[in-house]
């Protein structure tokens, strides 16, 4: 498989008052197109920082990040926003849905940045909701849906623009075990059947088993890479 994400000598530091905090230290990593990668490690290991850098939500202090041949570490803020909207879908632990909008309107939100007509936006949202198993819930607001259903809406919103890369930050962290397994099976289906490359931060070893690879970080460095059983 071809390389989708190529990271070389990646560094990230934060300034907290007079103190400089080193989060990532010269990290090297390649992620192939079609991979489903689980990022694991103790709190403070740099998992979420790495995820945010891959997804273009933050910029590195040093090193380079290339996604689909594009050096995103060289992009200015406005260029990075444009790149994210066309290439990355985001799924967060707490769904981040607009409470006053229906499921369908929540899914349509990323499409407001496109030139699609309102009818085409609606159709694309319906297709995405059907893909995540919520064809009959489009008119429901988040408060009328279970946590697992809300996360399905969030996944539909993440894939409605057909991004190359899905970035998932603890997507099952707020769900019961059954709902978590349903969400993980859905992500696995999107990876296997729809060729979505997924990078997921998780603390849950059972969640990591759904991925094709598990990467362990500790103190800002990659300490282990494991290819999971098929």
Structural notes for this entry:
It contains 7 helices and 10 strands. With 230 residues, it is α/β, with parallel strands linked by helices. It has one domain (3-227): 3-Layer(aba) Sandwich (Rossmann fold), CATH 3.40.50.300. A 6-stranded mixed beta sheet has the order 6-7-8-3-9-10. The protein has a 4-stranded antiparallel beta sheet with strand order 2-1-4-5, with helices on one face. β7, α6 and β8 (197-201) form a beta-alpha-beta unit. It is globular and about 50 Å long.
Task: Output the structural class.
Answer: alpha/beta
The end-to-end span amounts to: 16 Å
CATH architecture: 3-Layer(aba) Sandwich
Low-confidence stretches: none
Supply the number of helical segments: 7
In short:
One of its GO terms (molecular function) is ATP binding. With 230 residues, the protein is an alpha/beta fold.
Salient structural properties:
4-stranded antiparallel sheet; ABC_transpr_LolD-like; alpha/beta; 10 strands; 7 helices; Rossmann fold; 230 residues; ATP-binding; 6-stranded mixed sheet; ATP binding
